[in-house]
Specification:
Structural class: mainly alpha
Largest sheet: none
Order of helices and strands: HHHHHHHHHHHH
Number of strands: 0
Distance between the termini: 18 Å
Length: 312
């Protein structure tokens, strides 16, 4: 991590701290109020070493945590009205992941209770294929929502919250079954399609989260994303730019060695060049750009290795 990298991270996190409302949300009603975005901002601040009670960005972590807790329902579902989310299980996954990372860093007794309920909901709505979809129902599944849930469950297990082994085993089977012959991954089993960079990177992280760190599926997938990185820059998957980098950085971080070094230096320099003078990164997800900024900071901070879910 160069001096410019550290400056970019600090500038990005201070932008988030400045833009966060007292209740933990960002900007007007919309995606800035989605628990997924708020959870990602909290995770970005924790990736820099802050907790709800300590560190230069503890205020942002604390407000993010309170926002998530305030929107936990007795059923275990986590969601905020007015967030305009048509795919609430993304919020469920990222919010649960954030709660799992917070657990043990605060003496708030609500964290364990709400985390346990959120985990039970995720486990209970896993579908027959072994995956998850947009809504908390045991119906169809897609790879993108599935990675959010299994990563959250892995973080919860790391925090010693019970998750059945069968849940991980079924998820592993589902993810592997989505792999195409070229090493990449289709979006859904029910609608077989071609491979794409972003979801293929996410699939590798899903396998890591389920406990599969090597083997032909992982190696073939790593080769695919290395050979198709340009997809992020040629407009084919422009809408998934930060999403793709978020998962690709994790995939390469765990792969390690020269693959990681080459990958990180390239992505690092691109992200630093794309940061605005105000400190944020720009995406179409929300007007405040909290999502893009949090994702970019998480990628840049991968070598700090603070979040338990990212540790090798």
């Amino acid at each position: 991590m160069t001096g410019k990298t550290i400056q970019a991270i600090d500038k990005g996190l201070r932008y988030l701290l400045d833009k966060q409302s007292r209740d933990g949300s960002f900007g007007p009603l919309g995606y800035g109020h989605d628990v997924a975005v708020v959870g990602l901002v909290g995770l970005a601040c924790m990736a820099n070493g802050s907790t709800p009670t300590r560190g230069p960005f503890s205020g942002a972590v604390s407000r993010s945590l309170n926002y998530i807790l305030d929107h936990c329902q007795p059923s275990g579902f986590i969601g905020a009205r007015g967030a305009d989310s048509e795919r609430p299980m993304y919020g469920q996954g990222f919010a649960t992941l954030f709660l799992a990372e917070c657990y043990g860093t605060t003496d708030d007794p609500r964290v364990r209770d709400e985390l346990s309920r959120a985990v039970r909901l995720i486990v209970n709505v896993q579908n027959d294929e072994g995956g998850w979809r947009y809504h908390p129902k045991r119906q169809d599944a897609d790879l993108s929502v599935t990675i959010c849930q299994i990563m959250a469950l892995r973080a919860a297990r790391n925090a010693e919250i019970f998750v059945p082994n069968e849940t991980f085993q079924r998820c592993t089977k589902y993810v592997k079954s989505c792999q195409n012959p070229d090493g990449g991954f289709m979006y859904m089993l029910s609608e077989p399609g071609d491979s794409r960079f972003a979801r293929s990177a996410a699939a590798i992280v899903a396998l890591y989260s389920a406990g599969v760190y090597d083997g032909p599926e992982v190696e073939n997938a790593l080769r695919f994303i290395v050979g198709n990185e340009q997809e992020l820059y040629d407009g084919v998957s422009g809408a998934y730019y930060f999403y793709g980098h978020y998962y690709a950085a994790q995939a390469m971080w765990h792969a390690g060695g020269q693959r990681w070094t080459k990958w990180y230096t390239t992505v690092r320099d691109r992200l630093i060049d794309q940061q605005t003078d105000e400190g944020n990164w720009v995406d179409s997800i929300d007007k405040v750009n909290a999502y893009a900024t949090a994702m970019a900071c998480l990628v840049l901070m991968m070598p700090r290795n603070y979040l338990t879910i990212l540790q090798r």
